[in-house]
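User: Sequence in, structure out. Go.
Assistant: Echoing your sequence, followed by the structure tokens.
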Amino acid sequence: MANRRPTLATTDPKCPITPKVDPSSSPLPLIGPNGGRRLQAEQIAAAYHAGLSASERRRVQSAFMKGQLRVVVATVAFGMGLDKADVRAVLHYNMPRSFEAYVQEIGRAGRDGETAWCHLFIDKEGSDRLELRRHIFADAADPFAITRLVRAVFPPCKCRELQRRRLDLQAGAEVSDQEMAAMMDAATSAGGGGDDVTGSRGGGVTSEEEDDDVMEVDDDVIEPEVEEGERQRVCYKHERAIAIERAVMEMDLREEAIETLLCYLELHPQRWVELLPHTYGVCTVKAYGGTRELRAARPQRQSSTSHTDRLTIAPQRPHSVLQADRLNSAPQRQPSEVQFDVVELSDRMGWELPSVKRELRGLRGSHDGSIQVCFSSLSFHIRSYGDLRHLELDAACSFLRQRLEDQQRGALRQLNQCHRAFHSVAFQGCDPQPTEEEEEERSLRLKALLRDYFETETHGGGGEEEEDEDEGLSDADAAHVRRSLRHFLSVHHGGRFTPRSLARIFHGIGSPCYPAEIYGRDRRFWRQLLHVGFNQLTKMAAQEIIALNGIP
């Protein structure tokens, strides 16, 4: 293991971190690694960050790897793929967010077994911790946003209703002609035309199981109580498409945050959701010849036995365009155009989505270009249940809220542990220069803290309840916060702000509905309440919004 000696110092306005050197005016030669020759400025240091072009980033990394560049000033992303054995020093200008991140970053130094130095500069006023803390809540979600996501993931289906009607038929109950026609129509849409009219497609219960496991009382299907997770569902799963752009704006969450919530649902013990690769969920078919040509459109028949050919020749089924027209709830924009949710269509008809899209694309080549087919609206593609009861939907919302809260508490705990540990071994300034014995003693203390942290199974959690992000506000500070919130609401009168969106703005956190490019221009509010805990600021914002709207 390389002899890495972490030393720390707080930033001091009276003591610059490093002296400023002007290579063009310095009387001393700048000795480089290649034979003591004087180095040019571009050979001493260079920047590496996302704002540079890809070619410039490759040039800087290549020069550093070849030893043609001595120093790289970069974000932590630069070191992720760095494999250079003779890195002699790693300097942190800010505090890392966790011990895991710190160890990974200083691990780039001294891989050749020689002594390497790791310096960390931290702010003794704690601004580093406040800056890192705001990133923890960047993807925080409102309970309302979580509820909207759960409703979009688990829309109700007709499988349970079809099951009840099937039991009526088996019991010999009288069914009207209208109910019979509606049942057959719904069965065709939900079940894919097979014999199983429940639409379960392999995951439902059989008629023998129904006799033992389901009984009917007052037209309601009641299932015997079983252990959670063991109950067989009437509904297997349905494929859904959730438009990404629309979901991002409606929930005010980044795409990555929504996908994380979907992954949490997929990892739930009940396996409520199965994530599939993203897909384009909307299909638009245009015919230059008008409605007549659109109704006559059909792809070239490939094989009467092929599965995909069911799109056009399946008995007693209208072909794809007419069926989509019937299922489409939105009005057509033009008589010669039809737009529909292709994922919903495929699921209702019991067809495979890739086969349906392939057949729809075949319309373009079979009519001399007079018909155009395009797919749009990139969407989350999932497979989920449609028969979840209200208690199960509430459980899904509670599960997501709990996961987010646990993640935030864990990140805060790690951040506070880092802050306390680094401050406990830090020098309070760089003047006078610490002796080598003092540096060695602090370095050993920091290594002991790191060793104790990673030897603890919970990595510092210890099952303890994490303290609030900040001590309680004084009356004067609380009054100042409330004045700032009221001032913002009066300036943006008529805006639809949630308590969490207000807390984000005052912490300098951009979001899809409240981007930093717009709200960050007004420095009266942007990042002005970083010293107030996010959750505490959210509660105070909720109180001011309620008071403004006159809600008792």
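User: And one key feature?
Assistant: The chain has 21 helices and eleven strands.
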